[in-house]
């Protein structure tokens, strides 16, 4: 009887059971490993999900747990890094928003003060511009008055020079008249001398007539005709004496009047000379005043021109100040908008928890 090597049914059963057992063990191990891996992945995903949910809710303090270096682990690390970066950005935005809000408030106050100062400066500039215009008008009026005064002073100077020239001519005429009157005095003296001679002759003639009358009386009838002639000569001599006496009185009066006239003319000459000196002094002073007035007119003209320029410049300043005020109003509106944006940004950033 030979030995058979053909597997029996029991061997098949054992092998089958072994295989089934091995498969069961493998499936069990795979199930255990899969469950473990699934739990770890689920925990990883849950941690990442919670972190992302916190980001969505504004909580940036959450961090995902890292359970390995696989894709899920790297994803958790990336989420944590992104969360931290967002947190730093939010902190920066919060600080910037706070600073912007503070700066906006300060800028609002500054622009408000600048606007007040600009308005006050504009009002003052307008007032000063009006005053400068008035000053310019007054200075121009003074300049016109100075020009008229200069013309009047030049006319006065001309009149003073004319008066000085007339006074000088009057001095010459007075001196000539004085010489003429002096000559008249000399002539009256000579006439007086002649009158004295005539008086002497008349006296002698009167004496001769008296002697002739006496001699005619002695001669009697023969000297009667001679007595008549002697009487007529005597009468003529007496009449001549009376006439010469009258002439003498008149000549003395002429001499007295001539002396008074000479003295008066001399006084007039001295007065006219003083007038001439005063006229020359006045002419010199008026000439100096003319130069001073001309210089003053030029200075006043320059001042009028400068005042007009000042008025124009101040008007420009007032206009620029008004423009600045309008610009500051626009800046105020911009600052208000920035303040509103800063408030909105602070509110938006405030919803995050860092």
From TrEMBL:
PROSITE patterns: CHEMOTAXIS_TRANSDUC_2, HAMP
Protein name per UniProt: Methyl-accepting chemotaxis protein
Keywords linked to the UniProt accession: Membrane, Transducer, Transmembrane, Transmembrane helix
Domain HAMP: 39-91
Domain annotation Methyl-accepting transducer: ranges: 110-339
Transmembrane spans: 20-38
Pfam family, one: HAMP
Entries under InterPro entries matching the protein: HAMP_dom, MCPsignal_dom
GO BP term (any one): signal transduction
Keyword rRNA-binding listed: no
């Amino acid at each position: 009887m030979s030995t058979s090597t053909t597997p029996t049914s029991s061997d098949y059963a054992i092998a089958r059971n072994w295989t089934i057992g091995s498969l069961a063990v493998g499936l069990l191990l795979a199930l255990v490993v899969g469950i473990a891996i699934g739990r770890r992945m689920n925990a990883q995903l849950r941690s990442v999900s919670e972190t992302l949910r916190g980001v969505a809710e504004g909580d940036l303090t959450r961090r995902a747990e890292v359970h390995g270096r696989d894709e899920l682990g790297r994803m958790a690390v990336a989420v944590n890094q992104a969360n931290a970066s967002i947190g730093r950005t939010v902190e920066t935005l919060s600080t910037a928003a706070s600073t912007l809000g503070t700066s906006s408030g300060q800028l609002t106050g500054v622009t408000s003060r600048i606007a007040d100062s600009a308005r006050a400066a504009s009002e003052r500039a307008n007032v000063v511009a009006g005053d400068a215009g008035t000053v310019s008008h007054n200075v121009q009026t003074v300049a016109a008055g100075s020009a008229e005064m200069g013309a009047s002073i030049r006319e006065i100077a001309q009149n003073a020079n004319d008066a000085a020239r007339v006074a000088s001519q009057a001095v010459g005429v007075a001196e000539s008249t004085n010489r003429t009157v002096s000559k008249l005095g000399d002539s009256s003296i000579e006439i007086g001398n002649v009158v004295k001679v005539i008086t002497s002759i008349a006296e002698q003639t009167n004496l001769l007539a008296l002697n002739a009358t006496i001699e005619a009386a002695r001669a009697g009838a023969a000297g009667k005709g001679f007595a008549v002639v002697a009487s007529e000569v005597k009468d003529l001599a007496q009449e001549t004496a009376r006439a010469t006496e009258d002439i003498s009185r008149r000549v003395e009066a002429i001499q007295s009047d001539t002396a008074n006239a000479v003295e008066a003319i001399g006084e007039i000459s001295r007065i006219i000379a003083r007038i001439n000196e005063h006229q020359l002094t006045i002419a010199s002073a008026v000439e100096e005043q003319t130069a001073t007035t001309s210089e003053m007119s030029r200075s006043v003209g320059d001042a009028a021109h400068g005042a007009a320029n000042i008025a124009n410049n101040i008007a420009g300043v007032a206009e620029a100040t008004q423009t600045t005020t309008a610009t500051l109003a626009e800046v105020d509106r911009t600052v208000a908008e920035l303040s509103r944006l800063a408030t909105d940004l602070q509110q938006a950033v405030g919803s995050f928890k860092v």
